[in-house]
Amino acid sequence: MNSSSFLARSSSRISTITLQLRAKFITSRSFSILSNSRFLGEVRIPKFPIIKRVQPTQFRRVQTIVIGGTKERVHERSDYPLDKIHELFKNDTISIIGYGPQGRGQSLNAKDNKLNVILGLREGGRSWKEAIQDGWVPGKDLFTIEEALKKGTIVGNLLSDAAQKELWPQFVPHLTKGKTLYFSHGFSIVYKDQTHVIPPADIDVFMVAPKGSGKTVRSHFLEGRGINSSYAVFQDISGKAEERAIALGIAIGSGYIYETTFQREVFSDLVGERGVLMGAIQGLFLAQFEVLRARGHSPSEAFNETVEEATQSLYPLIGQNGMDWMYSNCSTTAQRGALDWYKPFRDATKPVFEKLYTSVADGDETRRVLEKNSSPNYREELDVELKELSESEMWTAGKVVRKLRPERK
Ligand SMILES: NC(=O)c1ccc[n+]([C@@H]2O[C@H](COP(=O)([O-])OP(=O)(O)OC[C@H]3O[C@@H](n4cnc5c(N)ncnc54)[C@H](OP(=O)(O)O)[C@@H]3O)[C@@H](O)[C@H]2O)c1
């Protein structure tokens, strides 16, 4: 079988899987994929996924997906209608501490979902001003951190990860028996040797971590979509921590929510953002741009062939349809070339990913974040590096090219 027909075939199989997950009236379902897979740590990576069977073995509300022999639990928004969420949190005040991208997205979504949400922010700071612009009212639903900690029965610690360490001593006296503490990252808990964040033993502690920017948490919610998130329970004193974690995850804007642990979340997240989500993409773009420039191509040509076509055309298509679809729907010249070259790129970068993972697991990445982002001027210091980046030839070329983008009719 030639590669394109194989890819087209696996594409239709993947669509089948998606349909299985989205089917609303199937009260119990799971699917299994037989794969020629290999192990990488805990996760089986299927090389050639083939559906073995579709068999109803789970009852509704907890679906188990099995990919490459690995079982995972998934919950979805339709399992937690708003009246159920209201019932679960009817006696709660949800205090969101921090109003960065996550604090903003999560608190506004939960407020729009008619939960009792208040904010805790430092008075006069950037976030305080933004919150007022967004309609939060000092003394009504916008308070100092201290006051919000006092009032909250569920406390969302959505400060920057460095500030979570710095302000932890302020949290502790307010985390009294019966309260709940949640995070959107495993950072503070997993790297407790560095952060000293150790919750009192008599409260529920869980995590709800949206798999995307807080801006997307909000924009997807406003569009009526949900974002994928993961959840984990660290301490379950009430016996209800898991249900409340999932319900809160839905309330703050999740569509599908996957089970994880604090450690697996923070390791994969730190690798991801340093890797293909941000750092590796920037590195790959730059490497290709520099080679094209060194070989005599104009800045606009190098930019168009590197960043513009990727972000404006191919990546959105990959996002919508999958990589296999992309292969089947590009020229056969591109298909041949991409099939020949993805392995050398994988082989060249894999040692870098291995090094990155080790750096995350050893705590070197978090040490650097805590050290660098604890300085009082950390935002300004980051801004200096970002300014240098945006003034680099690749991105200045980008600014010119973007101005030339055809207008929408
Ligand atoms: N951003 C994402 O896409 C994303 C995705 C998933 C999970 N997460 C996790 O969600 C959590 C929040 O992240 P984020 O990106 O929304 O926030 P962030 O931008 O890293 O942090 C911003 C918040 O922290 C406050 N803050 C920083 N230093 C402070 C200090 N010394 N005292 C008081 N407040 C301070 C800021 O207040 P001021 O404005 O007053 O400085 C602001 O409200 C983190 O655990 C992060 O890892 C983030």
From TrEMBL:
- Keyword NADP: yes or no? yes
Q: Which residues bind substrate?
A: S331
Q: Which SUPFAM superfamilies does this one have?
A: 6-phosphogluconate dehydrogenase C-terminal domain-like, NAD(P)-binding Rossmann-fold domains
Give the required cofactors.
Mg(2+)
BP term (GO), one: isoleucine biosynthetic process
Q: Which domain of life is it from?
A: Eukaryota
Keyword entries, A-Z: Amino-acid biosynthesis, Branched-chain amino acid biosynthesis, Magnesium, Metal-binding, Mitochondrion, NADP, Oxidoreductase, Transit peptide
Q: What is its main location?
A: mitochondrion
The record's annotation in InterPro entries points to: 6-PGluconate_DH-like_C_sf, 6PGD_dom2, KARI, KARI_C, KARI_N, NAD(P)-bd_dom_sf
Question: Which ranges carry the KARI N-terminal Rossmann domain?
Answer: 70-260
User: Which residues does the record give as Mg(2+) 2 binding sites?
Assistant: D269, E305, E309
Enzyme nomenclature, EC number: 1.1.1.86
Question: Which Pfam family, just one, is annotated for this protein?
Answer: KARI_N
- Compartments in which it is found: Mitochondrion
Residues holding Mg(2+) 1: D269, E273
What molecular function terms (GO) are annotated for this protein? ketol-acid reductoisomerase activity; metal ion binding
Domain KARI C-terminal knotted, first and last residues per copy: 261-408
> Is GTP-binding one of the keywords UniProt gives this record?
no
GO CC, alphabetical: mitochondrial matrix
User: Which family, according to the similarity comment?
Assistant: Belongs to the ketol-acid reductoisomerase family.
Q: What is this protein called?
A: ketol-acid reductoisomerase (NADP(+))
